[in-house]
Design brief:
673 residues; Nitrilase/N-carbamoyl-D-aminoacid amidohydrolase; 7-stranded mixed beta sheet; 6-stranded mixed beta sheet; 40% helix; elongated
Length: 673
């Protein structure tokens, strides 16, 4: 799939100074990586002879046998498209170096020596090796009869894939304060590889992950780490066969530690997203300019990327897959919202909150946040004024949920119907639905007989009347109107301009629809127990009832059974799809073709390609056409990596044309993947 590169980390079964066995196991895993379509496979430090050979490293036979093993691999590589990085001891002039050799298509393309040699506790590498820092720029080494670039100033660049640039370092290099890979990344390397031996002690695996994840995050890169397996000598230490591939701060794949068999981990890394992050993060470029170093760029022809995708693509990128992480995120989100609203209240000097409650997800979340904010400020919950405003489509279920929610929170509750006011306004503007409708019941009868009369004018008059009432009540109570619209609705423009689009503070502005229900569920299960105000049992039951209610604006009449007839997702499409599209567009700057590629992987057979194209077209059209609403949206806290605040993360002209994006969706056939 375009924009990705398949990389592998290999942990061969090793035996100390058993050159034939080590070479054969290395070649076996290399061939497996080649069959999978990897562009590169990385092996452990000194893997051809064994890291724990110690003083045998100064034995001439061992050095010659290591070179002979390298020769076997180089010859075999002529039939392989995958590049490999292998570790061995190499004598250059009068010094011995611990090196990583980059081998591809029958050639050693470059040799990178270990920069920093540990000589503390169980390590004693300066006893045998010279440090890479002493190798002058532009140096070469004679390897297998050819002069090969040698030094810490090498990057390996794929001629046919310009975003694939590989940097190498060895073990200790990434334990120092400023690893060599830092400078490699700032010079353009997107895949950083570390050949390690790294004996294991308790807790070291977690520290390795911390370092690799941190490096991949700060350097906007992939970090491939591989350590030696249990076949290394256990005279004084043990080895755990640890390998992992990290990307942008998270682990994509890892080995099974302490396994004694050959292991290969392989995953597709997202070069396109890494480049996007570097492009949008100006401080990365500033730092790279400040610490510029000169590197020689060694070209190679990378294997073409397979058409399948070998990595997990989450269908719900806003939701962590780990339950513990999801619970922690729900807590963090709720605290961000609560503290932000409390800060705004304290700054304005106001002590009253006015909130429209509908019995739906968004107003429920806003009510929970508002109650917790008052708690933080030591203000009574009766300072929260919950207003339900039944309209032409309100059902008994949602109206009842709204009242129970407010009363069980300990807030004040008031009902102000807007059906008659809506009829009066519609009649005043000569709307056909209100023609000859002497009362609300007549209006509803006419709408049921002629559903086509339930147009956007009829819907929006209700939203604007509700906002008028809330603002008027806020003036009367010297209070602040809390908005309820969420991130997904702002992306789609699913709000009425000068209606529910307007508030004095938007607590849900940074929370997508697919995440809000999880935060509500967390509050019901965890936070409610800690509250001293309100009726806990009734509140919890109501929250679960609201979670089971279909998403609807309830602006059109209910069905004959009194149930919700107007379902939002039937009109604009599933929110889980729109949240996926939104995340890929804003977080990663993804092209329409890439969004469709990834959506088909993430959702598998749940949605057809035609369905994705239908709703992605809707998404793009609404996203572009409704920027004017986002340009004047109320203040609200940023919660995650995706935000649409016009004052912060998303500054877009309201008159940008969407035609080119829609054409890309229409012309997509799936062949690009």
């Amino acid at each position: 799939m375009r924009g990705f590169a398949r990389v592998s980390a290999a942990v061969p079964t090793s035996r100390v100074a058993d050159f034939d066995a080590n070479t054969n196991n290395t070649l076996t895993l290399w061939r497996e990586a080649d069959a999978l379509g990897s562009v590169i496979v990385v092996f452990p430090e000194l893997g051809l002879c064994g890291y724990s050979t110690r003083d045998l490293l100064q034995d001439q036979h061992l050095l010659e046998a290591s070179i002979a093993s390298l020769s076997v691999l180089v010859q075999a590589s002529s039939a392989l498209a995958t590049a490999a990085v292998v570790g061995l001891p190499l004598r250059v002039g009068g010094g011995l170096y611990n090196v990583a050799a980059f081998v591809h298509r029958g050639e050693v393309l470059g040799i990178v020596p270990k920069t920093y040699l540990p000589n503390y506790r169980e390590f004693e590498e300066t006893r045998w090796f010279r440090p890479g820092v002493e190798v002058p720029a532009e140096a070469t080494a004679n390897v297998l009869g050819a002069d090969v670039p040698f030094g810490t100033d090498l990057l390996f660049v794929a001629n046919n894939r310009p975003d694939l640039i590989i940097g190498l370092e060895v073990c200790e290099d990434y334990w120092v304060p400023v690893p060599p890979s830092t400078f490699q990344a700032m010079a353009g390397a997107t895949v950083l590889c570390n050949l390690s031996a790294s004996n294991f002690i308790v807790g070291k695996a977690e520290l390795r992950r911390l370092l690799a994840n941190s490096m991949s995050d700060r350097c906007k890169s992939t970090y491939v780490y591989v350590a030696a397996g249990p076949g290394e000598s256990s005279t004084d230490v043990a080895f755990d066969a640890d390998a992992a591939i990290s990307e942008n701060g998270r682990v994509l794949a890892e080995s099974e530690r302490f396994t004694r068999d050959n292991q290969l981990i392989t995953v597709d890394v997202d070069l396109e997203s890494l480049i996007h992050d570097r492009m949008t993060n100006n401080s990365f470029g500033d730092c790279a300019r400040e610490h510029r170093r000169s590197f020689r760029r060694v070209p190679f022809l990378a294997q073409e990327q397979p058409t399948d995708l070998l990595r997990e693509v989450s269908a719900h990128p806003f939701l962590p897959s780990n339950p513990d992480t999801l619970a922690r995120r729900a807590w963090e989100i709720f605290e961000i919202q609560t503290n932000a609203l409390a800060t705004r209240l304290a700054a304005t000097g106001m002590q009253q909150l006015v909130l429209g409650v509908s019995g739906g997800l968004d107003s429920t979340q806003a009510a929970l946040v508002a109650a917790a904010s008052l708690d933080q400020l030591g203000l009574p919950r009766e300072n929260l004024y919950c207003v339900t405003m039944p309209g032409l489509g309100t059902t008994d279920t949602t109206r009842s949920n709204a009242e129970t929610l407010a009363t069980s929170l300990g807030a004040k509750f008031v009902e102000i119907g807007i059906s008659e006011s809506s009829r009066v306004v519609l009649q005043a503007v000569n709307h056909p639905a209100a023609k000859d409708a002497a009362d609300v019941e007549a209006l509803l009868t006419q709408l049921r007989a002629q559903p086509e009369l339930g147009d956007v004018t009829l819907e929006n008059v209700q939203a604007r009347l509700r906002t008028l009432i809330l603002m008027t009540l806020a003036n009367a109570r010297a209070g602040l109107v809390v908005g309820t619209g969420d991130l997904s609705e702002k992306a789609l423009g699913w709000s009425t301009y000068a209606g529910d689009h307007i508030a004095m503070y938007d607590v849900n502005a940074g929370v997508p629809k697919t995440l809000i229900q999880f935060v509500i569920r967390w509050v019901a299960n965890k936070r409610v127990e800690t509250w001293t105000e309100g009726e806990k049992g009734a509140l919890r039951d109501t929250l679960f009832a609201i979670l089971d209610t279909p998403i609807s604006p309830e602006l059109l009449p209910p069905d004959p059974d009194g149930e919700i007839a107007q379902l939002t997702e039937s009109t604009i499409g599933p929110y889980e799809l729109h949240d996926f599209y939104l995340y890929q567009l804003v977080r990663h700057g993804a092209r329409p073709e890439r969004i469709l590629d990834l959506a088909q992987v993430a959702f598998a057979k749940r949605y057809t390609l035609a369905t994705h194209k239908q709703w992605l077209t809707t998404f793009y059209r609404r996203f572009f056409n409704n920027q004017f609403k986002r340009s004047c949206t109320a203040d609200g806290p940023k919660v995650g990596m995706v935000s649409l605040s016009p004052r912060g993360d998303w500054r877009m002209p309201s008159d940008a044309q969407v035609r080119s994006w829609l054409s890309a969706v229409e012309n997509y056939t799936g062949e690009e993947a």
